[in-house]
Design brief:
The complex is a heterotrimer of chains A (484), B (180) and C (371). Chain A has 484 residues and is an alpha/beta fold. Chain A has 15 helices and 17 strands. The radius of gyration of chain C is 23 Å and the shape is globular. The chains are: A alpha/beta (484), B mainly alpha (180), C mainly alpha (371). Chains B and C meet through loops of B and loops of C. Chain A: The complex is composed of six subunits: RnfA, RnfB, RnfC, RnfD, RnfE and RnfG.
């Protein structure tokens, strides 16, 4: 299938050979599992268990609240030690409500929802409901509740389910391995999702640098005429939802709209596998494949880890560090976030754990911008990073917004390519956060103003009433005086 | 001779242009009052008095007369200061404007005697309670002006920092780069 | 609860991978591309040219270091970015090779103290420092700046000795009757005397100090003609430029457009009136056209950042160069053309921003089809 050329893009060192040929290994059950109540975009789930409770593997331990939220489940059988706040796998390491479970070693599934015997006869709502109950989020790293995206078929006319197997982030091989080792599960999951969406066509897009995955998926999909498997050129950020959609359909998703507006819904391959598990076996999402890599890791691996295992458990399983890492990163090196330490849990969106050396990161102090224009040339979104960063540096957030900073997908290509090593995308991340924070403050100021006006109006009304009730008396007093 | 022509023409031009400017300044002069109202509209309007003026309208007046800096409004924070600066056309360096940590009032229920003074003081009706009954602050409504703290006879009210959470966190501005 | 092993690392967001490229590497690649042409020219013009080259580059580095000291900023880090060396080098390439030492020193002062540092140093200047210096020198010292000489290759009989070179460069003691017009200057003068360009462009080769008559194009190939260092070795400069494109330091947009525009203008007018207008090949190999197109106009700091902008910029430089050479008082026009286009670079940048993904040119979101 012909693909459409995406603007810009970079070719970083991929270093996928560190783990690409290593089969997925299962992590031995750790001593403790730490399952945060918020592992997704949206409202945190409401905890259902307390210290001392016995839980079965797959039992719901936190219930979703509101439309954009997911359940969380016990990743193994055992006992709840406590429900407490521990540091989140987030750059700040801020505390986050977390259920701590002591595994009993049995690791047996509890009572699971009944498998949906024939998913293609089931209603789309039933499929979406099952996905929601199973706690599935977008596993490419965005962690948006998958069920919400499956329900887009109600509101929009979806023509294409685009299964994202691009995996354009350097180092990461978890999707590659899932496609190679669980090929049929991925294909089946994709067909179920397409059914839920009412999409007639499925396109599975895989970057050229994964020939085995391409081959296996193509073979498995051959039986299904609605599936097209498409190699896409190796280029970062090919896996960005909007850009992959463009590469496949040739259509740009309008700004501030969803890909669903042009009839496409994009899901990650690992999400498809999770949907397969949930629908065919009733198994919720309690584990995921994580690539543990980087040159500071003794033996890089692809690990299927239970949700809630600590990063340190995974590192230990990989034989520890071969040298002290300069940076620990969750996710890929381009869009991943730095980890505040090793005592944080693996969550549903953890696609990779990277222990990077200074040599690999190759960061250095910034030089002045020499206006080389590389950032303009490689920006897949058509932004002018050099100008936007200059405005942000001088606190002109309005100017940055006018130049389109809110359209930035934070892919990091501009920071990567900058010969002056200016942290361009950090400026944009800051600006996007600051603009949103300012909107919140404005909202609060507006609310305060409304409340203050209501308060003043009430006081005036009371004063008026008091004056009105006082008037007759005053008038009477005046008459008395006149009479005297 | 050439020199005289040059001096003459420059003087003439200077006088003419200066005259035009002078006339324009008179004719196009703007009344100050609408500005004052507009500035007042930008302020929170809670009359908290933390700026040092009696209320928002007085601060707006001082701003319009150019007597007060735009950075005094604590509840409005950096956002309001920016809007004021924009409206007034003044440049203000807010980069090292230390935003006061946003706070909200918290009533220690053991100490509250139910005097209702704080309720009367609160300009956003953010405290509920009745005479001789314990009072509580609705944290969502509180904008952290701190006036209730001053009137509380038993020191039961404390200003508490609004906790930094994952939901409201965002990347900080990059620290000044090592530019040579 | 305390978590001793947890450390806030929110000071720097990703990416945690960066290109190998640096400012320094870029600058040194450009210098590398200049080396072959420079070596040939220094050989051709001998000791005086070597002295002037050394003085110019040295002065630029010295003045840059001096202004860093004044500004209390880091001296070593700034010098080592290579930009001052490059500015001095490019300036030296555009000076008459036997010009006195103070031309090089003053040029450095103009370039660094006038054109670069007052704007905030590297990356901030509006105008190309080397070209500001060249033009400032040209209008201030027209005689010294047009005292071109024919090549006097080292180790040949007519080459000035070391001691003679010292008196040429440091005592402004130019031997009499040695100056020779550049190609463009020669044709311009001949035109004013009524000799048609169609004739003079072929005769130029005869004017310079060569043992036998060779066509001008051949002279250019071996660098054997009168002019600045960057003018004489046109073909090695072209090779250096192609090397920069291959190493992706520059793209084809600016040089391609500059050369293409000059070619088209010159060809069209030459076809109309070959006696008045020089042919395209003559324009391309004369007046340091290649140096301007590949090394001067492509200066990152003073040219537009977008590809569209670079095409417009290249067109402007090419067109203005041809116009100035053909109609204005100066035979060479590259420096003026580059400076004029530098001044509109911010405007070009503003109007040639790429279209945002998912938006129209105006910046509105694309319409959703079928709605």
């Amino acid at each position: 299938m012909k693909t459409f050329p995406v603007r810009g893009g970079i070719h970083p060192e991929y270093r996928k050979e560190l783990t690409g040929e290593l089969a997925i290994e299962r992590l031995p059950l750790p001593e403790r599992l730490y399952i945060p109540l918020q592992q997704h975009i949206g409202a945190p789930a409401e905890v259902l268990v307390q210290a001392g409770d016995l839980v079965a593997k797959g039992q719901v331990i936190a219930r979703r609240q509101g439309n954009i939220s997911v359940h969380h489940h016990a990743s193994t059988s055992g006992q709840v030690v406590e429900v407490t706040e521990i540091p989140a796998p987030h750059p700040t390491g801020l505390p986050q409500a977390t259920v701590v479970i002591a595994p009993d070693g049995q690791d047996v599934w509890g009572v699971l929802p009944a498998p949906i015997a024939d998913p293609f006869a089931a209603s789309p709502q039933a499929i979406a409901e099952r996905v929601a109950e199973s706690g599935i989020v977008g596993m490419g790293g965005a962690t948006f509740p998958a069920a919400v995206k499956l329900n887009l078929g109600i509101q929009y006319r979806i023509e294409t389910l685009l299964l994202n197997g691009a995996e354009c982030e350097p180092y990461l091989t978890c999707d590659d391995r899932v496609m190679r080792e669980y090929t049929d599960e991925v294909v089946d999951g994709a067909r179920i999702m397409a059914h839920a969406l009412g999409a007639a066509r499925i396109v599975i897009a895989i970057e050229d640098n994964k020939p085995q995955a391409l081959e296996k998926i193509t073979a498995a999909a051959a039986a299904f005429p609605e599936i097209t498997v498409t190699p896409v050129p190796v280029k970062y950020p090919m896996g960005s939802e909007r850009h992959l959609t463009f590469a496949i359909t040739g259509r740009e998703t309008p700004a501030r709209k969803l890909t669903a507006d042009i009839g496409v819904v994009v899901h990650n391959v690992a999400t498809a596998r999770a949907v397969h598990q949930a629908v065919r076996f009733g198994r919720p999402l309690v584990s995921r494949v994580v690539t543990v890599s980087g040159q500071a890791i003794a033996q890089p691996k692809n690990i299927e880890a239970p949700i809630g295992a600590r990063v340190s458990d995974l590192i230990e399983f990989c034989g520890g560090f071969s040298q002290p890492p300069e940076r620990m990163v969750q996710g890929g090196p381009m869009m991943g976030s730095p980890l505040p330490g090793l005592d944080v849990p693996v969550v549903k969106g953890t696609s990779g754990i990277l222990a990077l050396t200074a040599l690999e990161i190759n960061d250095r102090p910034s030089d002045p911008c020499i206006r080389c224009g590389s950032c303009v040339a490689i920006c897949a979104c058509g932004l002018t990073p050099v100008e936007i960063a200059a405005r942000i540096r001088h606190d002109d957030l309005d100017g940055a917004v006018k130049l389109g900073v809110m359209d930035c997908v934070s892919c990091g290509s501009c920071s990567w390519v900058c010969p002056s090593h200016i942290p361009l995308v950090h400026y944009f991340n800051y600006a996007k956060g600051a603009v949103n924070a300012k909107a919140r403050v404005d909202q609060k100021t507006e609310r305060t103003k409304t409340l203050a006006e209501a308060h003043n109006a009430r006081l005036e009304r009371l004063a008026a009433q008091r004056a009105a009730s006082r008037k007759p008396k005053a008038a009477a007093a005046a008459t008395d005086e006149a009479g005297a | 001779m050439y020199m005289l022509t040059a001096i003459g023409s420059l003087t003439a031009m200077g006088l003419a242009l200066g005259g035009v400017l002078g006339v324009a300044a008179r004719l196009l002069a703007v009344e100050e009052d609408p500005l004052e109202l507009e500035l007042q509209g930008l302020l929170p309007g809670s009359q908290c008095g933390q700026c040092g003026y009696v209320g928002c309208s007085q601060y707006a007046g001082a701003l319009a007369r150019g007597e007060a800096p735009v950075t005094l409004c604590t509840p409005g924070g950096k956002a309001v200061a920016e809007q004021l600066a924009k409206r007034l056309g003044v440049s203000v360096d807010l980069s090292d404007h230390v935003a006061p940590v946003p706070t909200y009032a918290f009533i220690n229920e053991d100490l509250c005697v139910g005097c209702t003074r704080c309720i009367k003081e609160c300009s956003v009706d953010g405290i509920i309670g009745a005479n001789k009954q314990m009072h509580t602050v609705m944290a969502d409504n509180c904008h952290g002006c701190g006036k209730c703290v001053e009137v509380c006879p038993t020191n039961a009210i404390k200003m508490v920092k609004i906790p930094k959470t994952l939901a409201t966190w965002h990347w900080p501005k990059p620290q000044s780069e090592t530019l040579h | 609860m305390k978590f001793p092993n947890i450390q806030d690392v929110s000071d720097r967001s990703g990416p945690f991978a960066h290109t190998e490229n640096t400012v320094q590497r870029t600058m040194f690649t450009v210098l590398l591309a200049l080396v072959p042409a420079t070596v040939l020219d220094l050989y051709l013009f001998g000791w005086p040219a070597i002295f002037l080259f050394g003085v110019t580059v040295g002065s630029c580095v010295f003045v840059e270091a001096f202004s860093m000291v004044l500004a209390q900023r880091r001296v070593i880090a700034t010098i080592s970015d290579g930009s001052a060396v490059l500015t001095g080098w490019l300036l030296a390439m555009t000076l008459p090779p036997w010009a006195p030492w103070w031309i090089g020193l003053l040029g450095a002062v103009f370039a660094i103290l006038l054109a670069k540092q007052p704007f905030g140093g590297l990356g901030q200047n509006l105008f190309n420092p080397a070209m500001v210096a060249r033009v400032a020198l040209l209008v201030s010292f027209p005689v010294a700046m047009t005292a071109w000489v024919a090549p006097h290759p080292l180790f040949t009989d007519n080459a000035p000795s070391f001691n003679q070179a010292i008196s040429i460069t440091f005592h402004s003691d130019m031997p009499d009757g040695i100056t020779a017009a550049t190609a463009l200057g020669y044709v311009k003068t001949e035109l004013s005397r009524g000799i048609p360009a169609s004739q003079s462009v072929y005769e130029y080769g005869r004017t310079i100090n060569m043992t036998s008559y060779t066509p001008y194009a051949v002279n250019s190939a071996v660098g054997y003609k009168s002019g600045s260092l960057g003018e004489t070795s046109a073909f090695l400069i072209l090779l250096g430029g192609l090397f920069l494109i291959r190493r992706r330091i520059i793209t084809w947009h600016i040089p391609g457009m500059v050369l293409g525009t000059i070619f088209v203008f010159a060809t069209v007018f030459n076809l109309v009136n070959p006696d008045r207008f020089s042919p395209a090949w003559f324009h391309l190999i004369s007046g340091a056209t290649f140096l301007g197109a590949f090394f001067i106009a492509t200066d990152y700091v003073t040219s537009p950042v977008s590809k569209t902008g670079q095409l417009i910029f290249g067109f402007g430089v090419g067109a203005l160069t041809w116009v100035i050479r053909t109609f204005a008082g100066y035979p060479e026009g590259m420096a003026f053309a580059v400076l004029l286009m530098n001044s509109v670079t911010p405007i070009i940048d503003q109007y040639t921003r790429p279209r945002l993904f998912g938006r129209t040119r105006k910046g509105d979101p694309l319409p959703v089809e079928g709605k």
